[in-house]
Write a structure and sequence with these properties.
With about 400 residues, the chain is an alpha/beta fold. About 35% of the residues lie in helices and about 25% in strands. The longest helix is centred in the first third of the chain and has 13 residues. It is globular, with a radius of gyration of 23 Å. Its cofactor is FMN; Mg(2+). One of its GO terms (molecular function) is phosphopantothenoylcysteine decarboxylase activity.
């Protein structure tokens, strides 16, 4: 049973850590909660003990004969601090050991994940940025906070990511995700574009965005700075990724091309509509006795081919996706040659296959190399297989 230490520092977002704890325990992890003294003013020890099924560790002077300030960290498979306040990040970066949590951070020899939460001004302060850089340079994973509503009426970056998103990142870390994307910027597109017919109707597809989100999530766990261009996706933002929301193919193109200018790798996992209506009705189209009028279509730009040809950065790696219903490999090989990308992930789609499912199977075609078969499994597994091929090419 994986041993997880959940550190909780003194921020209003401490209540969200209760959901993170529940996700760990219900998935079979043994969790030791270490709240700081001030964190107990937000959520009391009885709550942590009831949810974890074990006493909360709160003080270096409790059970001294067991040497908790050393034992807890040495026995852990993962330490995650959520929320991580500016104060906790500062103490961790400077190697202080003035409570049980910071002692545990010094003695842990396992991966450490920090999920910061604080007001925007504190997150953007040069001292906090320097502390984050220091922690990352030592191998810690510091998830960038989400942007949204903070305490009171304030809004901005500094919000604790959704607990389920933090949990998924932690699972990737526990699986042993390598840190081979450290210092890299990757762009991932996800979801399916919608091309408006009128204010109510659109031309779209069945893509849920699950595979693109898995790619973003695993890239964060492997150390990358991630820009996720999400088209019509109803999923919580992956922890640590910057999310740009779009609707149409033209909007997606603008976002991807802009982000690609500073990217080391671009993975086009979104299902982009091939066509769009030439004109959009300003009001809802009504039924008439004459029947529906034909919808004239125009071809959308080929974003994958465009960025593959442009390559704004030397050594940039471009990955495409091909969803096929028949002649899967033949169509995939033709698309790889036509698009000019480095890798093409080809999968068969249909009822119960790929779109909207938690699992996926694919063949990854490699320009100038042998294909790589990825058997059916969780979408995170396919995502890791993609990054395993991208990282050595960077």
């Amino acid at each position: 049973m994986p041993q997880v230490v959940l550190g909780v520092s003194a921020g209003i977002a401490a209540y969200k850590a209760c959901e993170l704890l529940r996700l760990f325990t219900e998935s079979g992890h043994d969790v030791q909660v270490i709240p700081t003294r001030d964190a107990l003013k937000f959520v009391g020890a009885p709550t942590w003990e009831a949810l974890s099924g074990r006493p909360a560790a709160t003080d270096v002077w409790e059970n001294v004969h067991e040497v908790p300030h050393v034992r807890i960290g040495k026995n852990a498979d993962l330490v995650v601090v959520a929320p991580a306040t500016a104060d906790t990040l500062a103490r961790a970066a400077h190697g202080l050991a003035n409570d049980l949590l910071t002692n545990t951070l010094l003695t842990a020899r396992c991966p450490i994940v920090f999920a910061p939460a604080m007001h925007t001004e504190m997150w953007e302060h040069p001292a906090t940025r320097a502390n984050v850089a220091t922690l990352r340079s030592r191998g810690a994973i510091v998830i960038d906070p989400a942007s949204g509503r903070l305490t009171g009426a304030d809004t901005g970056p500094g919000r604790l990511p959704d607990p389920s998103a933090i949990f998924e990142t932690c699972l990737a870390v526990l699986r042993g995700a390598p840190r081979d994307l450290e210092g890299r910027h990757v762009v991932v597109s996800a979801g399916g574009t919608r091309e408006a017919i009128d204010p109510v109707r659109f031309i779209g597809n069945r893509s849920s965005g699950l595979q693109g989100y898995a790619l973003a999530r695993t890239a964060v766990a492997r150390g990358a700075t991630v820009t996720l261009v999400a088209a019509n996706v109803a999923l919580p933002d992956p922890a640590g990724a910057r999310v740009v929301r779009v609707e149409s193919a033209l909007e997606l193109r603008e976002a991807v091309v802009g982000a690609a200018a500073s990217a080391d790798a671009v993975v086009m996992a979104a299902a982009v509509a091939d066509f769009r209506p030439v004109s959009r009705a300003e009001s809802k189209i009504k039924k008439t006795a004459a029947g529906p009028a034909p919808i004239e279509l125009a071809e959308n730009p080929d974003i994958l081919a465009e960025i593959s040809a442009a390559r704004p950065r030397p050594g940039q790696v471009i990955v495409g996706f091909a969803a096929e219903t028949d002649d899967v490999l033949a169509n995939g090989q033709a698309k790889l040659a036509r698009k000019g990308c480095d890798l093409l992930v080809v999968n068969q789609v249909g009822p119960g296959l790929a779109f909207g499912t938690p699992d996926n199977a694919a063949t990854i075609l490699v320009a100038g190399g042998d294909p790589v078969e990825v058997p059916r499994g969780p979408k995170d597994t396919l995502a890791d297989a993609v990054w395993n091929l991208v990282a050595p090419r960077l």
